[in-house]
């Protein structure tokens, strides 16, 4: 029992600042949306379109690709191999910068693309302005994501939270100054957003350079002289290892992010679409807020599992998994209680429209039910990342949401005519399916059995994953 409490303390020490960062990020997004709302309904519509587009085509991709470095860095920290840590950090930054190039072209040419899809020209023009001025944010995120993961794998999350909070304190006055004082409008909101991320980046770099030890040289040559044929791999093989982890991680994140946008798209075709769309917006804001807890648990357990596997202690990794899943179940119960008992109060925060409020109060308990499955499965995905198996999580997300959930949503919404309940029941069925497909019941046994170990051989992280599911 003392070991369990010690593990819970370690997970919460890593996870609590991540939760706080999620809430701070949520506040930042709210500031941007409120400012665009004060600029006018056209600006709000164009800004909302731009934010959705940038999330789908840019931020989700960079976030997912960066997660590929998690198992490499966490296991390398566990084995005290700092060379692998810094090589992985540099390669991930370079990978994200290269991945940003096609995204830049897409964002820059948003307006002609949307006009070909027969979108409203005025709204499209506003969205295009936002995307063009947000392009520097891709550079900031290409640096920020790897640095955050580097510090998290090191177990240092509190400084990341304080740096983020300090940058957000500047975000509100900068946004008002650019959008209203200088009359830049929506472009001013976009500029303030990437300035906030660059501020966070500068604060983090200052912390890293101020606190680093002589052994922690952030620069390691990307091309090293091989020590021997048996102890090293080719440069292409090392990049291949990172890409084999990064691409499935990217797919897992994108598949999960994109279904929110798909739900919004379906809502636009339902009866009384203005009511359905307004309610779906409230639902997305609610789920975004609720997601801060399971995402923090997922990141925490990924770090803990990776650290322990890198140290050659699979039993400790199993204990971390058990503790994290227990916390996830407890967290999901609180989410259900909140969306059930506090649904009217929460709904009135967003709207005074009786139709929208009535539908919101009806669907929020379903969101709580989704959380019962979503929180444990998100945590299990963290275990999969920490043990270098992100492709399993990507496959589960695809099968659950798109092969099971999507047909259920379309059938319920348009064949059985139950409206917005269809997409939400899709989410519930998808989350439930993921929770069942995710091998959470076997993860602890497989990790504890010593059949998954992160080993350091010749300066390279080699993850041996001979995991057999016992039937």
TrEMBL record:
GO terms for molecular function: antiporter activity; xenobiotic transmembrane transporter activity. The chain crosses the membrane at residues 14-35, 42-62, 82-108, 158-182, 188-210, 241-260, 275-297, 317-338, 396-416. GO terms for cellular component: membrane. One of its GO terms (biological process) is xenobiotic detoxification by transmembrane export across the plasma membrane. It is a multi-pass membrane protein. Keywords: Membrane, Transmembrane, Transmembrane helix. Pfam families: MatE. It comes from the Eukaryota. The keyword Transmembrane helix applies. The keyword ATP-binding does not apply. It is found in: Membrane. InterPro entries: MATE_euk, MATE_fam. Belongs to the multi antimicrobial extrusion (MATE) (TC 2.A.66.1) family. This is Protein DETOXIFICATION. It comes from Nyssa sinensis.
């Amino acid at each position: 029992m003392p070991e369990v409490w010690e593990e819970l303390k370690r997970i919460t020490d890593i996870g609590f600042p991540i939760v706080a960062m999620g809430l701070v990020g949520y506040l930042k997004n709210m500031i941007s949306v409120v400012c665009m709302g004060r600029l006018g309904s056209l600006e709000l519509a164009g800004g909302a379109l731009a934010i959705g587009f940038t999330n789908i085509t840019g931020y989700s991709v960079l976030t997912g690709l960066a997660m590929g470095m998690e198992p490499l860095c966490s296991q390398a920290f566990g084995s005290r191999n700092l060379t692998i840590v810094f090589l992985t950090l540099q390669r991930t930054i370079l990978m994200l910068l290269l991945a940003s190039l096609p995204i830049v072209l897409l964002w820059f040419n948003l307006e002609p693309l949307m006009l070909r899809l027969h979108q409203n020209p005025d709204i499209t023009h506003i969205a295009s302005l936002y995307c063009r001025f947000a392009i520097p944010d891709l550079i900031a995120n290409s640096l920020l994501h790897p640095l955050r993961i580097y510090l998290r794998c090191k177990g240092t999350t509190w400084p990341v939270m304080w740096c983020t909070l300090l940058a957000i304190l500047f975000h509100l006055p900068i946004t008002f100054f650019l959008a209203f004082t200088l009359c830049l409008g929506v472009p001013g909101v976009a500029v303030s957003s990437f300035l906030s991320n660059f501020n966070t980046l500068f604060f983090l770099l200052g912390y890293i350079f101020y606190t680093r030890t002589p052994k922690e040289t952030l620069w390691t040559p990307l091309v090293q002289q091989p020590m021997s044929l048996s102890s090293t791999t080719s440069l292409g093989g090392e990049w291949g290892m990172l890409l084999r982890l990064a691409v499935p991680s990217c797919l897992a994140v994108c598949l999960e992010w994109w279904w929110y946008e798909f739900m919004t798209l379906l809502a636009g075709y339902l009866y009384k679409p203005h009511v359905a769309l307004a309610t779906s917006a409230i639902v997305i804001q609610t789920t975004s807020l609720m997601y801060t807890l399971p995402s923090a648990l997922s990141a925490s357990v990924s770090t803990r599992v990776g650290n322990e596997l890198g140290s050659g202690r699979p039993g400790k990794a199993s204990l971390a998994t058990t503790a994290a899943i227990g916390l996830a179940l407890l967290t999901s119960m609180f989410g259900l209680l909140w969306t059930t008992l506090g649904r009217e109060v929460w709904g009135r925060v967003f709207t005074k429209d009786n139709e929208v409020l009535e539908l919101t109060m009806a669907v929020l308990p379903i969101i709580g039910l989704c959380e019962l499955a979503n929180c444990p499965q998100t945590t299990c995905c963290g275990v999969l990342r920490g043990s270098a198996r992100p492709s399993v999580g990507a496959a589960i997300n695809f099968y659950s949401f798109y092969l099971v959930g999507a047909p259920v949503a379309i059938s319920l919404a348009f064949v059985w005519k139950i409206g917005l309940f269809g997409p939400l029941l899709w989410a519930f069925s998808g989350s439930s399916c993921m929770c069942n497909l995710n091998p959470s019941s076997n993860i602890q046994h497989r990790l504890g059995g010593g059949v998954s170990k992160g080993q350091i051989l010749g300066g390279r992280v080699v993850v041996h994953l001979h995991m057999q599911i016992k039937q």
